[in-house]
């Protein structure tokens, strides 16, 4: 995808009517990843467009059965298949870079086999490099674009987590890191409902991954069926909030297809993308969110400034503070369907930047998480007053 393709992609997203999902998929992996990112941008796209673009998380063509067999033979050593009673030819899930098949080991254990669809890496890197050059030219001509939208930062984030996804060893190692964080913090925070599938590392490599089959439903499927209990979604906030605000290392792709509800347990899967954020942002944002949950806007305005790498003061701060209070005058007591938390957060960051603040580039992964979580709440419980429901979790995290 060159810059012409990128411009056409943007036009298809912003034009009236819904984007052509099949056309986007034909433009290659980068186009799909950009489309997936815009599926979260409920801060400036209408809900119908975002919902339609979210199909890119699951609307992916399956590999023909014969090709699956060829890929398995190419990815594994002789004798690898002898570990299995069977591997189903039809996938149970398919995403942009890989697909998943049910299987059973000769030991009787139910597992899933995930395999990378093809060698995307070379073309993906070429497309990213081409788009970077185009964006650098656009920023040179319009410098404010970098401060307000940070397109290069978003592209670099897409590049990093996609390349991480293309090597399944990262999914194994990142899962072990997140599991280790959970295990080392059991005495200070209740993470008992968080689980990770068992990984069969001896049967896995960068292109193929064998893991425990989890009996349950993804949040994505439950949301589509309107069967996701709001309390389970709040529990996800509870768990993910600990990783974001207390640790600063967290699941970098927390979309509803990557969370499985099994009984009362929440399983994190597809941990190929892992994100981190600096201490100034993680602690400052926690203070901001807690004050926001109690509608203490004066403190929120201060918290946002304290989060910035370059703060403002004097008359600049006074002018910003007045605009901040105006921005949140319609927020108190409003449901997620009335006022989007994501939209407010994006407008807040934009206000800070336009007022002279400079933020750490690591902000985007957190905003991305908020977009996922906010979008889930809108589908699950549109009458929820989310910030009030989060008060007890934010209080725990602060302690």
Automatic annotation (TrEMBL):
Q: Which CDD domains match?
A: ABC1_ADCK3-like (cd05121)
Task: Using the record's annotation, list all stretches that form the Protein kinase domain.
Answer: 86-399
One of the Pfam families matching this protein, by short name? ABC1
Where on the tree of life does the source sit, at the highest rank?
Answer: Bacteria
A single Gene Ontology MF term assigned here is: ATP binding
Q: What family name appears in the similarity comment?
A: Belongs to the protein kinase superfamily. ADCK protein kinase family.
Protein name in the entry: Protein kinase domain-containing protein
Which source organism? Peptoclostridium litorale DSM 5388
């Amino acid at each position: 995808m060159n810059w012409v393709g990128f411009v056409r992609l943007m036009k298809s997203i912003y034009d009236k009517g819904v984007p052509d999902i099949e056309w986007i998929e034909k433009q290659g992996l980068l186009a799909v990843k950009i489309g997936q990112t815009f599926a979260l941008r409920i801060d400036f796209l209408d809900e119908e467009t975002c919902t339609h673009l979210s199909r890119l998380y699951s609307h992916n063509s399956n590999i023909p059965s014969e090709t699956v067999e060829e890929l398995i033979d190419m990815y594994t050593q002789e004798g690898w298949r002898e570990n299995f009673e069977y591997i189903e030819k039809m996938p149970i899930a398919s995403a942009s870079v890989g697909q998943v098949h049910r299987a059973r080991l000769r030991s009787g254990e139910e597992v899933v086999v995930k395999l990378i669809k093809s060698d995307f890496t070379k073309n993906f890197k070429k497309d990213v490099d081409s788009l970077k050059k185009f964006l650098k030219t656009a920023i040179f001509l319009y410098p404010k674009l970098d401060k307000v939208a940070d397109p290069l930062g978003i592209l670099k984030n897409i590049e990093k987590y996609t390349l991480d996804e293309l090597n399944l060893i990262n999914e194994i190692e990142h899962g072990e890191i997140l599991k280790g964080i959970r295990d080392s913090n059991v005495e200070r925070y209740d993470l008992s409902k968080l689980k990770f599938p068992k990984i069969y590392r001896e049967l896995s490599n960068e292109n193929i991954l064998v893991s425990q089959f989890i009996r349950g439903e993804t949040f994505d499927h439950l949301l589509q069926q309107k069967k996701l209990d709001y309390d389970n979604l709040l529990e996800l906030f509870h768990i993910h909030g600990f990783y974001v605000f207390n640790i600063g290392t967290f699941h970098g792709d927390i979309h509803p297809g990557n969370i499985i509800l099994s009984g009362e347990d929440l399983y994190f899967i597809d941990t190929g993308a892992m994100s981190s954020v600096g201490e100034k942002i993680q602690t400052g944002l926690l203070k901001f969110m807690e004050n926001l949950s109690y509608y203490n806007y004066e403190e929120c305005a201060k918290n946002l400034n304290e989060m910035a790498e370059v703060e403002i003061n004097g008359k600049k701060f006074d002018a910003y503070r007045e605009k901040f209070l105006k921005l949140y005058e319609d927020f108190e007591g409003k449901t997620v369907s009335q006022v989007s938390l994501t939209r407010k957060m994006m407008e807040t960051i934009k206000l800070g930047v336009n007022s002279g603040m400079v933020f750490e580039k690591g902000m985007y992964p957190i905003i991305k998480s908020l977009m996922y979580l906010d979008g889930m709440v809108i589908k699950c419980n549109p009458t929820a007053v989310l910030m009030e429901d989060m008060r007890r979790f934010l209080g725990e995290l602060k302690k």
